[in-house]
Amino acid sequence: MLLLEALGSALLGLALAAAAVRLLARRLPAARLVLASGVLGALFGAWLTGYALGPGHASPMATLAGAVLVSAVVLSLLLRPGGAAGGPRRAPFSLPSRG
Q: How far is CA 79 from CA 24, 65, 70, 86, 98, in A?
């Protein structure tokens, strides 16, 4: 059962990462990094959820849900800010000048 949860988590992370690469290609780094991060995030999420639920939990769906959530969080950390085309660009956390 553990192997199926790990395989399912990895596949869900890969699918989520592939969707992110397809939809948000301009705001993400290299596709290989995104795909690897999605899979590793999902595997870590599955392990973390299984650890939190404790031994003998009978809900593989909870493990897969935790894997998808952690994978989505890891992928969101890779996003770069999207700017308006032609708009003024300023450093993060800077105040607009009055000049």
A: 8, 22, 15, 20, 31
